[in-house]
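forwarding from the other thread:

> can someone predict this with iron/sulfur cluster?

sure thing
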Amino acid sequence: MENINIKDLSPTELEEFVSNLGEKPYRARQIGKWIYKKGATSFDDMTDLPKGFREILQDSALIPSLSLIQEQISRDGTRKYLFELWDGNRIESVLIPDSGRFTLCISSQVGCALGCTFCLTGRVGRIRNLKPSEILDQFLHVNSRSSRPVTNIVFMGMGEPLDNLDNTVGALKTFTHPDFIGFSPKKITISTSGLVPKIKELGERISVNLSVSLNAPRDELRNEIMPINRKYPIKELVEESKRFPFPNRKVLTFEYVLLSGVNDSDTDARELGELLIGVSCKVNLIPFNEALPLPYKSPSDARVLLFQRILIGYGLNVRIRKNRGRDILGACGQLAAAYPVEQNLKNLRKNVDIQPLRHKASKGEYENLEAK
Ligand code: SAH
Ligand code: SF4
């Protein structure tokens, strides 16, 4: 039998694992504390476990970690981390310091299958799901290197977390268990493009914050820019999201990426206002982060402000998200971990002239980016 990566096991699975090895379930909490609170990297360090049990653990499990291969620092203080996985795949995480908060944006997949036309990760296509350990390690690495502890975690890096639900939930259980990482569920946000049945399932399995990437006020447009909408239309998505069990005093968030001339008109704002009027929610407007070879433009500041003002007229709580880390391609939708992104063209918006990527990014070029 292959040795198991202990960080792939949720707290309950770790209890089962130690029971199967003939030990009491509370040993799982001891192991959790060693790994997640004290940073132990070997079972030998776990001095309050019986020596014989430590030897059994050594023969049956491992505590490996991701390799951090690069850290880039933006002019605005945002940091982007590039990790290499055991199979050579790469993922990125982004740390955003902002007025007292240290928000870590983590990845849930290598690439993404959902092909939203404005997102660079979507252009990579789906490569594979991350395992729970690979989700957790992004936090463990960054938190241990950071000058201040991470205060918030958002699943807004590469991938669609609900397209990797089991591993995402497994990692969330470890994040939130008091004897493991002990992170407050109120400070964790899952962002989704709208896999409706999975939103329901997530809510049945754990209570954290939910952010829905809406990006269009009507099906016709959303079908074009977010192909998942053809399967789960807007009304269904909004209804299911309203039922989500939020932690105390927390409300649903809708993200809306503003694409110049595509979804940012006064009519779009009014339709969005009509759709969300009376829904207890926050709306975050994200001016599109430009990234080659995506065929969109960011709207002017004046357009963004007007869009916001119209929505406020509907009684909505609307904020404009600052674009952080754009200069290091660390902003929303710019994460591609140096994968070639010319694939996955078939879902792209009709009637838009897509220029092929001028060159394929490689690991070497990624490093050059930093030098610029
Ligand atoms: N798959 C999930 C989480 C990752 S994307 C989701 O879609 O929600 C995280 C956020 O980045 C989403 O709100 C998405 O709409 C936004 N985004 C994607 N590409 C973007 C871009 N080029 N500019 C600005 N935001 C973008
Ligand atoms: Fe995937 Fe989210 Fe990007 Fe859409 S916006 S392609 S769901 S990562």
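The longest strand covers residues 90-98. thats all i got for now
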